[in-house]
Amino acid sequence: LFHSYSSIFAFALMGILFAKLFWNLVQPRMDFYNELWAPVYLLVHGQSPYDTTSLNTILPAAWFPMAIGFFFPLGWLPEETANYGWFVFCVVELGMIIYIAQGKKRSLYNTGILTFLSLFFPATLYHFFIGQISLTVTLCLVLAVHLAQKDRHWLSAFFIALAVSKPHLALLTVLGLSFIYFQKDKWKGMFSFWGRVAIFALAMCIPLFVAYPNWIPDALHAMTQNPIWSYPSLFVLFERYFEKWGYLLWILTTIITIGINHSLWKKLSPVNAAYWSLALAPLVSPYVGSWDFVILLPLTIFIFVSIDWKRKVALIIFYAIAWYQMAQIQALEVSHN
């Protein structure tokens, strides 16, 4: 109990200090505005959530409708209030990820070190800066696997449905859970799992159907209008350096990664396998932003608490090297930061 309560206190204290220090990191008219606040603002005013041109958004809304339907009450808040509220919400979500991923090896000093490393992870900082939803997706997938282990199948499906707001990050975890349900009750178990997820996904879309029934054509249009950037994904990198052969390399990499993912779910506990699925997700996703790499945190946290102090030091050194390299990339003019 001491380590549990002290860990919560440690993160709360560091989280408050971080929020105070980086309060000005939160910027208006970034992804939170383009992808969530503008759509839900229009939704609660009876307009199409996926036609945001009237609000002068920089980019079209591309998050899946489950996120818009679930978070639609944000549309009743002023933009600035919602923006800072989302920042605090994401900090709390990060704390929950750190707390849960440590499992039974949770301790005060582990929490202190991991909180510092996680808060200052470049992907985390950029996530806060633009107001992304990847921490929400990561937490939902972590919660879903833990709840499935406790036979809370409907609640687990609820979190999966919300996580699929970014399907490219959730794919491998959903495949792993599908395998677990198949092992338990064959096809019936797997299809029941998919059915529960589908029910919650549709339920989250109800506010869109009620407020603006004809939202689907606008959604399909908006999701195909995002410009093509140099995403840090193997799909983009292979195509850039190997041209047409790059597509074949990406397909092979995806097949191998899915095979590794399946093997991990066969050999490891579902929770441990899920952390690996999260970390492997960027390898198979054709679309992934630098902020999406917060999905590496659960596995990093789990590994950190599972190794001895010498390997902890080595991991921190590796983290520092990676942090420096990532910071250099972010500082480049072509990064548009």
* Strand composition percent: under 5%
DSSP E strands, number: 0
Number of helices: 16
Which class do the helix and strand fractions yield? mainly alpha
Largest sheet: none
Write the element-wise H/E pattern from the N-terminal end onward: HHHHHHHHHHHHHHHH
What global shape is seen?
A: globular
Overall mean pLDDT stands at 93
Termini separation: 43 Å
Cα-based radius of gyration, to the nearest Å: 20 Å
Question: Helical proportion?
Answer: over 70%
Uncertain stretches of 5 or more adjacent residues: none
Structure in words:
The protein is mostly helical and 337 residues long. Helices cover 72% and strands 0% of the residues.
Describe what is shown at a glance.
By secondary structure, the chain is mainly alpha-helical. The protein has 16 helices and no strands. It is 72% helix and 0% strand.
